[in-house]
Automatic annotation (TrEMBL):
Similarity section: Belongs to the class-V pyridoxal-phosphate-dependent aminotransferase family.
Sorted UniProt keywords: Aminotransferase, Pyridoxal phosphate, Transferase
Species of provenance: Bicyclus anynana (Squinting bush brown butterfly)
Gene: LOC112056693
Protein name: Alanine--glyoxylate aminotransferase
Record domain Aminotransferase class V: where: 50-347
Cofactor: pyridoxal 5'-phosphate
Length: 389
């Protein structure tokens, strides 16, 4: 007997059924069948060639996904927040200023992260159902002269998409780096990193890429790399892109061990990117645009109202809908799940109790899914009228 004193007995773990749902919230969404298969591939060690070959496929595909020629592209072990923490802490030093264009919960998270690192974080807030115009941003840049501007491209808490063309140039005019969250926009909405002058970007796998959460692509422009290479501060070890670049072999022939990246996540991300490369970005963007247009038309026919008033501000991957007075959002979401096996979400952060959030993206970006969700929503509206009004 090696251990005579077992003070904590082993709990009995019961079999639990996990129902497969049509995941039409703001993420996670369902995954490609080929990704399910990729997740079962053998585990290899971080020193194996298979690992590095897959990482190289990933880096090249991320150059395509973000539309950047940058060498510093890689993926962080962790969900979207790990990408957020990485770009902020590598690009902005403690006591430097970061201006945060704030309209949803992700910008508030960026504020929280920045404050924990003693960054002088300045939120610039606008109403949750709108997007930023560049004149106001310029006034803020002039006023604060920040090291960086943080902005969210697609906001899954509000269902808005921010125009970014020209924003990099504006930031650079005032000496600021442009940091962008593309977690729920990448792959589903046009994004051109180099063309738009974006300096640091992060994404995630569980939205339009249709993979499991747990690995987050990031990329840095030359301007951001210069800042990173000359910095005096130390970002957290786990998120230090100078060290991670050596593991990801970004500048060639380093292959240094930093941490044990999860092999299944590497296989999964590689496969998600393969699915997108195969379709091509312009086709995938158009698919999301067309399917959402159809979905919105169906919702309007059923009398649903959108949270975001301007059509051009509405995000193609996540739609926010306001229910008529007297309806309870939680009851609506539960009814959809129990009666249609469809998971949509209520609001989050500024939209909590104010909207439904419906995500039709990635593998689910089809007319069939859009129709099924619109019909289920109409059925739910009708069913709940009797009981709740
Ligand atoms: N940014 C956006 C736009 C998101 O939608 C999310 C996730 N819903 C995040 C950041 C955070 O990502 P995660 O939950 O994967 O950490």
């Amino acid at each position: 007997m090696l251990a005579t004193k077992i003070l904590v007995p082993a709990p009995k773990i019961e079999e639990r059924k996990i129902t497969e749902l049509l995941l039409c919230g703001p993420g996670p969404c369902n995954i490609w069948p080929s990704v399910t298969e990729a997740l079962t591939k053998p585990i290899v060690s971080p020193i194996c060639d298979e690992y590095y070959n897959a990482m190289e496929d990933i880096r090249l595909s991320l150059n395509y996904l973000f539309q950047t020629k940058s060498k510093l592209v890689l993926a962080i072990s962790g969900s979207g927040h790990s990408g957020m923490e990485t770009v902020i802490t590598n690009c902005v030093a403690p006591t430097e200023t970061m201006l945060i264009a704030t309209r949803g919960i992700w910008d508030e998270r960026a504020l929280n992260i920045a404050q924990r690192y003693n960054i002088n974080a300045i939120p610039y807030r606008i109403p949750l159902d709108s997007t930023f115009d560049f004149e106001n941003i310029e006034t803020q840049l002039k006023k604060w002269r920040p090291t960086a501007l943080f902005i969210t491209h697609g906001d899954s808490s509000t269902g808005t998409v921010q125009k970014l063309e020209g924003l990099g140039e504006l930031c650079h005019k005032y000496g600021a780096l442009l940091i962008v969250d593309t977690v729920v926009s990448i792959g589903g909405v046009p994004f051109l990193m180099d063309e738009w002058g974006v300096d640091a970007v992060y994404a995630s796998t569980q939205k339009a890429l249709s993979g499991p959460a747990g690995i987050s692509p990031v990329a840095f422009s030359e301007r951001a790399q210069e800042k990173i290479n000359n910095r005096k501060h130390q970002p957290p070890f786990y998120f230090d892109v100078k060290l991670l670049a050596q593991q990801w072999n970004c500048y060639g022939n380093t292959r240094a061990y930093h941490h044990t990246l999860s092999a299944p996540m590497i296989w999964a991300l590689r496969q998600c990117l393969k699915e997108i490369n195969k379709r091509t970005l312009p086709v995938f963007w158009k698919t999301h645009h067309d399917v959402t247009k159809h979905f919105h038309k169906r919702l309007q026919q059923y009398g649903f109202k959108f949270l975001v008033p301007k059509v051009e501000d509405r995000l193609a991957t996540v739609t926010t809908v306001v229910l008529p007075r007297g309806y309870d959002y939680t009851t609506f979401v539960r009814h959809m799940r129990e009666n249609y096996n469809i998971l949509i979400f209520g609001g989050l952060g500024p939209t909590a109790g104010k909207a439904l959030r419906i995500g039709i993206m990635g593998v689910n970006a089809t007319i069939e899914v859009a129709d099924a969700v619109a019909e289920a929503m109409a059925g739910t509206l009708k069913a709940l009228t009797k009981s709740s009004l």
